[in-house]
Design a protein that fits this description.
By secondary structure, the chain is an alpha/beta fold. Among the domains are: 31-98 and 166-211, Rossmann fold, CATH 3.40.50.970; 239-393, Rossmann fold (3-Layer(aba) Sandwich). The chain has 16 helices and twelve strands. InterPro entries: Dxylulose-5-P_synthase (IPR005477), THDP-binding (IPR029061), Transketolase-like_Pyr-bd (IPR005475).
Amino acid sequence: MLTGRRSLMHTLRKKGGLSGYTSRSESDYDAFGAAHGCNSVSAGLGMAIARDCKGSWERVVTIISNESTMAGQSYEAMSNAGYLDSNMIVILNDSRNSLHPKLDEGSKTSINALSSTLSKLQSSKSFRRLREAAKGVTKKIGMGMHELAAKVDEYARGMLGPSGSTLFEELGLYYIGPVDGHNIEDLISVLQEVASLDSMGPVLVHVITKGNLVADVNQKNEVSTTQPEVPVNFHPRSYTDYLVEALVMETEEDKDIVTVHAGSVMEPSLRLLQEKFPDNFFDVGMAEQHAVTFSAGLSCGGLKPFCIIPSALLQRTYSQVVHDVDQQKLPVRFAISNAGLAGGNGPVQSGAFDITFMSCLPNMVVMAPSNEGELVDMVATAAHYDDGPICFRYPSGAVDRTDNFIRSGLPLEGRSAEGQS
């Protein structure tokens, strides 16, 4: 909206319309395509180094959410940024959402007048120059004074800052925060101070926000509207609904079956599966590579893991699928969701390649159902198949049925992985 596309917002995610994500081909203001999670710091660091090599002056700012920091790539990028010491700003948008209920119930980073004042002090030019001058003096003195001063500085900032702030310092990023993301005056003040500093290396600004703020406002302003009547007996269901119900049946019969879910969004029916079998369900969030190797470890331990990953995100796990699962012939069951064209989610989120890159693996059994009944049978097949890895794909669309009946799955007859065509 701020980059000249306000008049086209009604075309969002429609044919010939706006993409729904930043796109380099759509606007000069879109510096990078941001439809792939956890990659902003890596891309920003590349741009910063390119700027340095070309001797230009652009200021690089990247934004990453706390949910994206579950993936290893974000930490790999931060570590590399600290080593290269190139000027860039990383804004951590911390909405305080967590996959783990115990963390949600615990203490959270508090925002008060003191923390706001400390954040402004940390970002001030005078404080930064004093800190750099102190570093220079201790280096000249020698005799380990520089290392000692660095430890004192780290401990002091760790005591004043929130829990975990020293992690970013260890990675080589100068930590500033926490900052109240809804206090625009304070936020602008900190960002202006950070932008005014030269030769500062990478900086991380920790911004606290409330992710459900807009939703709360919308609920308060909700206006009732007349909806078209829907037949009482019509209950549109998705392929995921059938997958979950089949998994429930199989898990009730075999307590060794566990479910591993990876991705940024979990459908409501999967949450019901999580509630029904809390000890057999693991949601790792946007850590798809970990999900695959974690599933391989579960298999080595004698369990029967079903690893649920969207097709577009399975692409980033291919090394783990090949080395940690297929080459070891471990019976990991891959449930590949959102397969095929993803419609309004755009080309980046479409799962168009999984059949090709899974079928070429020597020990992988690949299945694709033509309807919900075959999907249920494939869940049963995967549950009873222990000769190696097996996968099945299914789309995200609704199933055109008006009943809620689901039968028990029947294992399909087929050849072993060595003899598959």
